[in-house]
């Protein structure tokens, strides 16, 4: 059985090998499914929101 060459691109959530022509891409990152793409986007939004709250928290 012949091995397939790795694209070197991996899903940011689960690490599975994805194809470069995959259209599931956000923030320059590739994903294996819409669910994983949405999970990553939601986590990024939470991270950015927390960063903004810390920035405006005051002394």
Task: Give me a quick take on this structure.
With 59 residues, the chain is an alpha+beta fold. It is built from one helix and four strands. The longest helix is centred in the last third of the chain and has 22 residues, at 34-55.
Please, could you describe this protein's structure?
The protein is α+β, with helices and mostly antiparallel strands. It has one domain. It has one helix spanning 34-55, and strands spanning 9-10, 17-18, 25-26, 29-30. Strands 1-2 form a two-stranded antiparallel sheet. A hairpin with a 2-residue loop joins β3 (25-26) and β4. The model has no long low-confidence stretch (mean pLDDT 84).
SSE topology sketch:
Blueprint: E1 9-10, E2 17-18, E3 25-26, E4 29-30, H1 34-55
Antiparallel strand pairs: 1-2, 3-4
């Amino acid at each position: 059985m012949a091995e397939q060459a790795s694209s070197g691109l991996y899903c940011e959530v689960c690490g599975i090998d994805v194809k470069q022509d995959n259209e599931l891409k956000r923030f320059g990152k590739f994903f294996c499914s819409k669910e994983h793409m949405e999970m990553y986007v939601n986590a990024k939004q939470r991270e950015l929101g927390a960063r903004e709250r810390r920035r405006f928290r005051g002394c």
